[in-house]
Design goal:
The protein is α+β, with helices and mostly antiparallel strands and 266 residues long. It is 29% helix and 14% strand. It has 8 helices and 8 strands, in the order ααααββββααββααββ.
Length: 266
C-alpha cells in the first residue's frame, strides 16, 4: 500500500512537471489501482474535461505558467535552482538529456537531443558527438560544431572573447577536466578531457544544458562579462518573461526538425 502511494506521488510529480501525459497518468495509475486518485488530481488542477471535449489542438496561443517562486535569469549557463531550470528546460536544448519519463529506475537513461549519437574513447578522455542536421536558432543561424564550441568556450575558455565569468562559476563542475574542444567538421564535436570523469555525461545533461547562437557574439571581451543576447535551439515555441530585469534577453530558439539530443552543457 505504501509502495503504491509512493509510486502515485512520483506519477503526480511527473504529470505536474509536464513529463507525463494525461493518458499515461491514467494508464499507470490503473496498474496500481489509483484511477480515482488520478481523476481527483486532474479535477484539482481544473483539467477534468476529456481530451475530446477540448477540441482539436491549435498551433500558437499563450501559455501561462504559475511557479512556486521567482525565477533567476533565463540563461542556462548562469542560473541556478530547479524552479528556473524547469522553465529554461522548455526553451533551451543541449546535446543530450535524461529520460525522465520512466518511473522507478535507479538512474535515468541518457538520450540524444541536439546530438544524434556519441562515442567515448577507450581511455575515457575523448567524447565524440555527431550533431543533428537541419537545426536552426531563432535568428536563423545554423546549429553546427562551431556553435557548440562557442557555447563551451563561453563557460570554460577564459581567453576566448565570449567567456562569461558567471557562466564559468555555474558550470565549473562540468568542465573542470576539460582540455580542448575539437571540431573535425561542421557535424562533429570532440570534447577532450585531461583525465577521466565518470560523471561527465550525466552532469552535462543537467541544468546548464542549452545552446546560444554564435551570431550573438559580444564585440569585445569586456562586453562578454555581461551576458549577451541569448538565442538558443529549443523544443518549443518562443518564450518571453516579464519578471525581474535580467542581463540577458532570452529569445529562445526552436528547431526546424524533430529533436533528440545528447551530451554537453554550454
Amino acid at each position: 500500500m505504501e509502495e503504491d502511494r509512493t509510486t502515485f506521488e512520483a506519477l503526480e510529480a511527473a504529470f505536474v512537471e509536464g513529463r507525463l501525459s494525461r493518458r499515461e497518468l491514467f494508464r499507470r495509475s490503473a496498474l496500481i489501482g489509483a484511477t480515482a486518485a488520478a481523476a481527483h488530481l486532474l479535477d484539482s488542477l481544473g483539467l477534468a474535461r476529456s481530451a475530446h471535449a477540448q477540441g482539436t489542438p491549435k498551433k500558437g496561443g499563450t501559455l501561462v505558467i504559475a511557479k512556486e517562486s521567482e525565477l533567476d535569469i533565463l540563461d542556462p549557463h548562469s542560473a541556478g535552482g530547479w524552479v528556473t531550470w524547469r522553465v529554461s528546460k522548455q526553451m533551451h536544448e543541449g546535446l543530450i538529456d535524461e529520460d525522465l519519463t520512466q518511473a522507478n529506475v535507479p538512474y535515468p537513461k541518457l538520450i540524444p537531443k541536439l546530438a544524434t549519437s556519441w562515442d567515448v574513447s577507450k581511455d575515457s578522455l575523448t567524447y565524440t558527438f555527431k550533431l543533428r542536421k537541419g537545426v536552426k536558432f531563432h535568428d536563423g543561424t545554423n546549429f553546427d560544431a562551431a556553435a557548440v564550441k562557442y557555447n563551451i568556450d563561453r563557460c570554460a575558455a577564459k581567453d576566448s572573447p565570449q567567456f562569461y565569468a558567471r557562466a564559468n562559476a555555474y558550470t565549473t563542475w562540468i568542465w573542470q577536466f576539460l582540455k580542448e574542444v575539437k571540431t573535425p567538421d561542421e557535424g562533429t564535436v570532440q570534447i577532450v578531457l585531461r583525465e577521466p570523469y565518470g560523471d561527465f555525461l550525466p552532469s552535462s545533461s543537467r541544468g546548464a544544458a542549452g545552446r546560444r547562437s554564435s551570431s550573438a557574439r559580444p564585440r569585445s571581451r569586456s562586453t562578454a562579462t555581461r551576458a549577451s543576447r541569448s538565442i538558443r535551439p529549443a523544443p518549443g515555441p518562443s518564450a518571453s518573461w516579464s519578471g525581474r530585469p535580467t542581463p540577458t534577453s532570452s529569445s529562445s530558439a526552436t528547431r526546424t526538425t524533430g529533436a533528440t539530443e545528447r551530451c554537453s552543457t554550454a
